[in-house]
Specification:
elongated, single chain, two-stranded antiparallel ribbon, mainly alpha, about 160 residues
Length: about 160
C-alpha cells in the first residue's frame, strides 16, 4: 500500500496531458506580452514541446487552441482597458496586439457580440444612469443631482 501512496504523491499535477506548471507558464507569458506577436511555435518552445504536440495537449487542457486562447486574453484585456481607462479605442487595440483598428473591431465583435465602440457606449450609459439614480436617491433634489452629475466622471 505504501508503494502506491508514494507513487501517487510523486505523480506530477497534470491537466489532461499538460502539466499545470506548463499551462501557467504559457498563460503568464501570453498575459505579459499581449501587444507582441505570439505564435504557437513560441509558446511550444517555452514549454519544450513540439508545436503539434503542444497544440494538441493545450486544447485538451483548455478546450481551445493556443491562438484562440491568445485572442480571448486580448479581448478580455481590451474590455478591461475600455472599462477602466479613457484611452482611445485605437490605443486599446495597439496595447492588446492589434495593429488594424478594423481587425480589432471585427474580432471584438465576434467574441463579445458588440463592437468596442458599442461596448464603451453601453458602459457610459450605465454609468450615467447609475450616477443620476444615486444622486437623486441620496440628495432628493434636482439641484443636487445636477451638481453630482456635473462632478461625476461619467457625465
Amino acid at each position: 500500500v505504501e508503494k502506491y501512496i508514494t507513487a501517487a504523491a510523486e505523480k506530477p499535477d497534470f491537466h489532461s496531458g499538460l502539466p499545470i506548471w506548463r499551462l501557467r507558464k504559457v498563460e503568464d507569458y501570453v498575459r505579459e506580452r499581449l501587444a507582441d506577436e505570439i505564435s504557437v511555435e513560441t509558446l511550444a518552445e517555452l514549454v519544450e514541446l513540439s508545436p503539434f504536440h503542444f497544440s494538441r495537449v493545450f486544447k485538451q487542457a483548455t478546450g481551445m487552441s493556443p491562438l484562440q486562447f491568445v485572442k480571448r486574453e486580448r479581448i478580455t484585456r481590451a474590455q478591461q482597458l475600455i472599462r477602466e481607462t479613457s484611452r482611445t479605442l485605437i490605443e486599446v487595440a495597439l496595447e492588446v496586439g492589434y495593429t488594424s483598428p478594423s481587425h480589432f473591431a471585427k474580432v471584438f465583435r465576434r467574441m463579445t457580440g458588440v463592437t468596442p465602440k458599442e461596448f464603451r457606449s453601453a458602459l457610459s450609459g450605465l454609468a450615467r444612469s447609475f450616477c443620476r439614480k444615486y444622486a437623486l436617491g441620496r440628495a432628493g433634489s434636482r439641484e443636487k443631482e445636477k451638481a453630482h452629475v456635473g462632478y461625476c466622471c461619467h457625465a
